[in-house]
Structure formats: structure tokens, C-alpha cells
Design goal:
Structural class: alpha/beta
CATH class of the largest domain: Alpha Beta
Largest sheet: 7 strands, parallel
Shape: globular
Number of strands: 22
CATH architecture of the largest domain: 3-Layer(aba) Sandwich
Helix content: 40-55%
CATH superfamily of the largest domain: P-loop containing nucleotide triphosphate hydrolases
Strand content: 5-15%
Number of domains: 5
């Protein structure tokens, strides 16, 4: 009999589960509902992928991020596991075919955005699928008290009712007690087993460094902590500026933001993942689904909007279980900046109506039209055309999404897809009758095979151009003509966010918006911003503050954060001097890495020892060379 451990070894290459993965898997295999609140990097996806493989039928995975679902589907396919994704970037014809494959084919995992589950097309097919498990990823999005509320999540209980005997597993990395109860209630979980690991990360040291000169402080951090790093900044422009500053200091660096093309984003990301660039400077668009376990330090140069975002982003350090650091570089003006940013993210009803009307004009939608139709929208172009400021407009669109009027996808890359609509006989007859299209059709079949006749297949126009000795523009024109003639379906590549009207386009002046709910969300966002400011400014154990924010009781100081280490310095001054003397004595005779130094000293208080080494570097007594070997500065 095949066991969960067998599946884990066969497909993921691991010989044992991390706690509490196996317990979660056994719970859903027994047919019980469960809620798992596990920190970033704890392996939440394994908790539904392993039982999904063990049981007959398919596992439905609901997740809000298209880029993340594409990444997970690609990883499953690389393992030989049939998986597909359905989201706003696909045409109705593509969705129709994919859902048919889920009903009649060998699909094991169906990834879908929450809004897609509300369509009649999905619900009719879903009832006919053999579903073995429903997994709700990023489950905190179901709660209006959470930080990424998505109204469609609150309707998932209706989807579950269509397969009432199927167990449901909800997973998230962060949930306050209120959000946890909201998840259980809204999903109508039946006597769920709740798994919740402590939010404390034993290998992660949380640090806040106050600095008048952020560039100097960032350089100090990067020079004290060897290894791969992420530096988070607030704006796209800042990613480029900070990347240039670090490059001028001789640090290998790249940058990432949502406004870059797919090709550029992929190239920059690969540089960093392969360690050809040590530092990634990025907006918070970066990080979801990134599988890099050896990040040693995450630095925030601006205060995040809320503790949930910070905990998730900081948690990208040290996923390999080794010691890592998460630092906020803080200036006194940052608190006022965050309060101002939060105010700008709170549009009035009048602003919401104005942005809604502008979107309708931009997309040329008549009243009563557009329900369920997705559009690619370049937000910068939209704002420029209507003279709208970018940040407040994005905040308004987010609020329209929270009102259930729109769905806005994250930016993701969707390659060109083609599906031949006629059978082989009719295709041959067409090639004979329309000889000018024959080279294109032959090239398609030679390069991409018979799968084109059964479903949509990703293609590259440039590859076809080389095979036919045509230009890329000529290939695209031929494909458009074949699409118009209904010989094939041609969906060109897209690399912009998708916007979908979830209801028929309404008269903006009569748009129904719940003012009380808007005010409640505004108060909540302000409360979360104040919690983030308190985290940075209160002289209390950083990890303890986060644990209390997420509702953990009976917490204890972590002994690793900057506050705990500073307190230890005051009480253990003798030990501090002793470590200092040992370090200087060893390095006077030979140069070693910091790991070799720690092994030789074998300190009882490792965090205090690490702080001693960093203090000596900051004082100019020690220095690293290009290979991260410590030397006494001559």
C-alpha cells in the first residue's frame, strides 16, 4: 500500500515530513476538514499535494495569485503530475476545454482563482468532477478583518456544498484570532482540526536599526551578514536607484518590480536565484513562490503596511533552517510616511465612482455589458490617459475589488497559445485550398505536434518564424487570419494585469457602495499601520510583539532580536568582553570564516557572540575579504 511518505519520496525527493505536515495529511485522508496556520517556508503546499496524489480523483486548489498558481502547476508538471490552472487570463474556449479535461481526463490538480469558481461554467462542470480534496490557499483572504480581503472567498462555502462529502483544507501563513474564526465560520468547516505552529522562528533574528543615513546602514548590514539578501523598497523607481547605489559599492545586485517585462523579470530573478547576483532589490511584488532557501538577510528600507506583510516578507530569510536576519532600517520620518501612505489608500466614495467611470470609458463598456469579461490593463497608461495619480487609483481599484465589483489579477506572463479547431481531414482540405497558409500550419504541427488538435498549446511565434523564414510580424498576421477564419484559436501573449468586471457595468453615479464597510476597513488599515509603527519603535522583544499581534499567549523573549541582545549586553558585560578577547586572539594568529570562528569559540550565547563579531566589524577592527573570510584590519 502506497503511503504519504512514499509519495513524498517519489515526487519531492524528501525522506521525511516537517512537523506538522504528516498530521495534516492524515487528517484530510480521514475525510476531516482542517485549518493549517503555518509560517512562510513551512511547506504548506505539500499538505494538500501529497493527499491529492494518494487519493483517486483530483484536488481543487483555490488561490488568489495567478503567478503563484502558474509556478506550482509548472513544478507539478515537471514531476510528471497532470495539473492545470484556470484564471482570468484565459479565454472562455480555453477554460471550456480545461474543465472538460478535469471531468474526463487524468488531471490530478486543478488550480483556480476564487472568482472563477463563481461562474456557471465552472460550477456545472465542478459537480461532475471526481474531487478528492478542496484546498483553500491564502485562506486569510476570506476575512474582511484580514490584510488581503477578496470577497469571492466568502462564497467558497457554496462551491463546497456542490461536493459535500469532500474534505476541505484551508491554509495560510498568517492569521490573527479574529481572522482564524472568520475562516472557520465563512468556509463552514465541519468540526475542523486546527494546526497552528508558533509564529516564533527559532533561526530568525529580527532587528530594527535606526539611521539618519539609510544607505550607510544598509551597507553595514550587507557587509556584516554574508550570503544572499533581499532588500525591499516601496516604489519601482527606488528599486533601480538602490540597485545602482549598491553596484557602485562593488556589491553584485539586481532588481525586480511589477513594471518590468516578463523577460526582464525572469532574467533578473534567475541571476539572484543562481547567486550570480548576491542582492535582490525589489518591491513587495517579489517573493511569492520563490524557492530559495539560503537567503541570509531580508532588509526593509521602508515600513511595511502591516505586520502580516512584514512577517511574510521577513520569513523569506532562513528557510533552510540556518541562522538568518530580518532588518528594518528605520528613520523617525518613516512613521509619518506610513500614516500618509495609509490615508492615500483610503479613497472616498466619490473617488471610487470616478475611477469606476474612467475604467468603463477606458475599456469602452456600455452599461449592462462586460460581466465576466477580462481585459488586459496597463495601469500606468490608464492613469496617464485620464490624468489620475497612480497610487491612489490603484488603491481605489483595490476597494472596488473588495466591494465585489471587479477582479484584478497580479501581473503575470501568459505565453501565446494556439488550438486547431478543425479535424485532420478538414485541416488537410484547407491546406490544399489555401496554399499560402500551408507553411505555417506545417510548421505548427512539426514543432508542437498533435496536441494542437486536442487543446491549447503554448507556442513561440519567433520559433515558427525561423522554421518558415518569415518575420515574427508576418507569422502573427497569418495566425490572426487563421483565427478569424476559425481554423484555429490564437491567444497572443500577455504580460499585464487582467481586470474583470464581476457584475454588468453599472451607472457610476448610482454605484452601490457600503459606506459603513468602507469606514470599517479604513479603521482597520490604520490600526494595522499603527501596529507596524509600534513594532519598529517600542523597545520590546520583536518576535514577542509579532507573536502577541497574531494572538499567541504565554510568549517569552526570543533572546535573538536586537532588543534582547541589547538587554543581554547590559547584564552580561563580562561575557561580552570575554567573547571579544577570544575573537581577537584567534584572528591574530590566522584568518577564518565566521562559522569556523563560532565553532572554535563554541559560545554559550550564540546571538551575543554574533553581535560581538558585528560590533568589531562596525568598529573597524575586523573586516571580511571577497570570500567572506574574517581578518584583523591592519
Amino acid at each position: 500500500m502506497v503511503t504519504p511518505a512514499d509519495i513524498l519520496k517519489q515526487y519531492w525527493g524528501y525522506t521525511q515530513f516537517r512537523p506538522p505536515q504528516e498530521e495534516i495529511i492524515q487528517t484530510v485522508l480521514q475525510g476531516r476538514d482542517a485549518l493549517a496556520i503555518l509560517p512562510t517556508g513551512a511547506g504548506k503546499s505539500v499538505c494538500f499535494q501529497v493527499p491529492g496524489m494518494l487519493k483517486e480523483g483530483l484536488c481543487l486548489v483555490v488561490t488568489p495569485l495567478i503567478a503563484l498558481m502558474q509556478d506550482q502547476v509548472a513544478q507539478l508538471r515537471q514531476k510528471g503530475i497532470p495539473a492545470i490552472a484556470i484564471h482570468a487570463g484565459l479565454s472562455r474556449a480555453e477554460i471550456d476545454l480545461l474543465l472538460d479535461n478535469c471531468v474526463y481526463g487524468p488531471v490530478k490538480f486543478l488550480y483556480v482563482s476564487p472568482e472563477r469558481t463563481q461562474t456557471e461554467l465552472f460550477r456545472e462542470r465542478f459537480q461532475r468532477m471526481k474531487v478528492n480534496l478542496m484546498a483553500i490557499d491564502e485562506a486569510h483572504c476570506i476575512s474582511q478583518w484580514g490584510h488581503e480581503f477578496r470577497p469571492a472567498y466568502r462564497l467558497l462555502a457554496e462551491v463546497k456544498d456542490r461536493q459535500p462529502g469532500v474534505p476541505l483544507l484551508a491554509v495560510t501563513a498568517s492569521a490573527t484570532p479574529t481572522v482564524k474564526m472568520d475562516i472557520i465560520t465563512s468556509l463552514q468547516l465541519r468540526e475542523p482540526v486546527v494546526f497552528q505552529r508558533s509564529f516564533a522562528r527559532e533561526n530568525l533574528s529580527l532587528v530594527v536599526r535606526e539611521a539618519e543615513n539609510k544607505e550607510k546602514k544598509l551597507l553595514e548590514i550587507l557587509r556584516k551578514v554574508p550570503g544572499s539578501a533581499i532588500v525591499y523598497v516601496r516604489s519601482r523607481k527606488a528599486t533601480v536607484e538602490w540597485s545602482r547605489k549598491l553596484q557602485q559599492q562593488g556589491i553584485s545586485v539586481t532588481y525586480y518590480h511589477g513594471g518590468m517585462s516578463h523577460t526582464d523579470r525572469a532574467a533578473q530573478q534567475e541571476q539572484w536565484i543562481s547567486n550570480r547576483a548576491r542582492v535582490m532589490v525589489a518591491t513587495n511584488a517579489f517573493g511569492m513562490g520563490i524557492n530559495k532557501a539560503d537567503v541570509r538577510v531580508v532588509v526593509h528600507l521602508d515600513l511595511p503596511e502591516n505586520p502580516e506583510s512584514y512577517y511574510q516578507e521577513a520569513g523569506r530569510a532562513g528557510r533552510d533552517g540556518k541562522r538568518a536576519y530580518a532588518a528594518v532600517v528605520y528613520h523617525a520620518a518613516d512613521a509619518a510616511d506610513l500614516r500618509t501612505k495609509t490615508e492615500h489608500a483610503l479613497p472616498t466614495v466619490e473617488q471610487l465612482r470616478a475611477v469606476y467611470q474612467a475604467l468603463a470609458n477606458y475599456l469602452q463598456l456600455a452599461e449592462g455589458a462586460g460581466q465576466g469579461v477580462s481585459f488586459g490593463v496597463k495601469m500606468e497608461d490608464f492613469c496617464q490617459q485620464f490624468g489620475l495619480p497612480l497610487a491612489p487609483t490603484l488603491a481605489a481599484i483595490k476597494k472596488l475589488e473588495e466591494e465585489g465589483l471587479l477582479e484584478v489579477s497580479d501581473q503575470f506572463y501568459q505565453p501565446t497559445r494556439v488550438h486547431i479547431l478543425v479535424d485532420k481531414k478538414r485541416l488537410y482540405e484547407f491546406q490544399v485550398a489555401q496554399a499560402r497558409f500551408d507553411p505555417i500550419i506545417k510548421a505548427l504541427l512539426r514543432l508542437y505536434g498533435g496536441e494542437l488538435l486536442t487543446g491549447f498549446v503554448p507556442i513561440q511565434e519567433d520559433q515558427i518564424a525561423r522554421a518558415t523564414q518569415l518575420s515574427g510580424a508576418e507569422v502573427r498576421e497569418y495566425l490572426r487570419q487563421l483565427h478569424h477564419m476559425q481554423v484555429l484559436a490564437y491567444e497572443p501573449a500577455s504580460d499585464v494585469p487582467r481586470l474583470t468586471f464581476l457584475t454588468p457595468r453599472q451607472d457610476a453615479s448610482r454605484l452601490t457602495i457600503d459606506r459603513k464597510k468602507l469606514e470599517a476597513r479604513a479603521a482597520l488599515l490604520k490600526q494595522k499601520a499603527e501596529a507596524m509603527i509600534a513594532y519598529a519603535t517600542q523597545p520590546r522583544c520583536r518576535m514577542q510583539q509579532l507573536q502577541e499581534y497574531f494572538g499567541e499567549a504565554d510568549t517569552h523573549p526570543c533572546h535573538r532580536c536586537d532588543v534582547c541582545v541589547a538587554n543581554r549586553k547590559k547584564t552580561d558585560d563580562h561575557l561580552h568582553r570575554e567573547y571579544q578577547q577570544q575573537v581577537l586572539h584567534i584572528l591574530a594568529t590566522r584568518s577564518v570564516t565566521v562559522d569556523e570562528l563560532e565553532t572554535e569559540v563554541n559560545p554559550k550565547e550564540k546571538e551575543l557572540f554574533g553581535e560581538v563579531v558585528r560590533d568589531l566589524i562596525e568598529a573597524g577592527l575586523l573586516t571580511y575579504d571577497a570570500y567572506w573570510v574574517l581578518h584583523i584590519r591592519k
